[in-house]
Amino acid sequence: MIDRPAWAEVNLSAVTRNIRSLKSLMPPGSRICAVVKADGYGHGAAAVSRAALAGGAERLAVAFAEEGIELRRQGITAPVLVLGYTGPEGARRAVGWGLDVTVLSEDNARLVSEAATALGGTARVHLKVDTGMSRLGIGPEEAPAAARAIAALPGLELEGVFSHFAASDAADSGFAREQLARYLDVIARIEDSGLRIPLRHMANSGGLLFLPEARLDMARPGISVYGLRASSERDSLSGLEPAMALRARVVQTRTVPAGTTVSYGRTFRAARITRLAVLPLGYADGVFRSLSNRGEVGFPSGRAPIVGRVCMDQCMVDVTDLPEVREGDVGTFFGPGGPAVGEVADRIGTIDYEITCAVNKRVPRVYTEEESRR
């Protein structure tokens, strides 16, 4: 991709500073587990993991065993928790690579126990309790008995019990507090039976930021690690810096007469003599097609509207009002120098997470270490 002047610029120093800001909110002795699943929300999991650990994160979390194994292959030795379902083959690989495993039931835990005993080792497991997400996990009523049974299985160390918020980002925190109460009741019932849980954790980014009582022994921030919004309803960016910018250089400019149509479907017609700039990023790269005739690209001299339909590999912007823009100049689709990720997300009706996760792997990541722009 060297000949293609388009890249995602990731400021690793911003990630490190974000972790420090988040950790400053935690109780003394509590831990940060940085969530780096989905290739670090599109930023690059290995690079982000190192930056997060440098900022004081003690642990990392991924969705699937393969993501954790890739971190191990990249030389990362910190504890890594697999948050999603792990089946028989995944259990053997996860245990073999020294990953911590989420278990959803006694049967699921037995798979990990069998893998650990076959390998002659001990696997750390975390029991997930469903307190209202209605996704993965065991019910609160079954959880205490399951925890005791899991702790007794050979080759297992029940290191943690956790849950996940469904609406910690909402302006009304009522349901989040209900979930937290259910979770804490489960923990109390487990510990009343004499079983100590070293790591109690429930707070995602929203929980960490908005519910101090949910910080507990560990928090699992994801989107906040990358300096993006944990909520569109509440201020969640104080002290955080966006880490990614999606950029490309103008590869051609041209002036077309009034009445000229642009791109597939001819959805844009120039109302005046129009100067166009072509940028080599499209919907296969993470520039959503829904930004056609709606998005903007930032240049040092101002913003230019995306005109016509976004193509698979390219898009066009109207730089008539930015006469300074020339071939080779850098345009920013989101991030510092262009629209904020949240602005792009709001424009197309999605969330910050989807914007960075959509940046395709064919877009090179360029890592920088920059001082804070705040």
Overall description:
- This protein has 2 domains: 12-225, TIM Barrel, CATH 3.20.20; 244-368, Lyase, Ornithine Decarboxylase, Chain A, domain 1 (Beta Barrel), CATH 2.40.37.10.
- Helix 1 (12-23) crosses helix 3 and helix 7 (143-151) packs across helix 8 (174-192).
- By secondary structure, it is an alpha/beta fold.
- The chain has 11 helices and 19 strands.
In short, what is this structure?
This protein is of the alpha/beta class. It has helices at residues 12-23, 37-41, 45-54, 65-73, 88-96, 106-119, 143-151, 174-192, 205-210, 341-348, 352-357; strands at residues 6-11, 31-35, 59-62, 80-82, 100-103, 123-128, 156-162, 199-201, 218-219, 244-249, 252-256, 261-262, 268-269, 274-279, 296-299, 302-307, 315-318, 330-334, 365-368.
Please describe the structure with a list of short key phrases separated by commas or semicolons.
374 residues, Lyase, Ornithine Decarboxylase, Chain A, domain 1, eight-stranded parallel beta sheet, five-stranded antiparallel beta sheet, TIM Barrel, alpha/beta, elongated, 2 domains, single chain
In terms of topology, how is this protein built?
Blueprint: E1 6-11, H1 12-23, E2 31-35, H2 37-41, H3 45-54, E3 59-62, H4 65-73, E4 80-82, H5 88-96, E5 100-103, H6 106-119, E6 123-128, H7 143-151, E7 156-162, H8 174-192, E8 199-201, H9 205-210, E9 218-219, E10 244-249, E11 252-256, E12 261-262, E13 268-269, E14 274-279, E15 296-299, E16 302-307, E17 315-318, E18 330-334, H10 341-348, H11 352-357, E19 365-368
Parallel strand pairs: 1-19, 2-3, 2-9, 3-4, 4-5, 5-6, 6-7, 7-8
Antiparallel strand pairs: 1-10, 10-18, 11-14, 12-13, 14-17, 15-16, 16-17
Helix pairs in contact: 1-3, 4-5, 5-6, 7-8
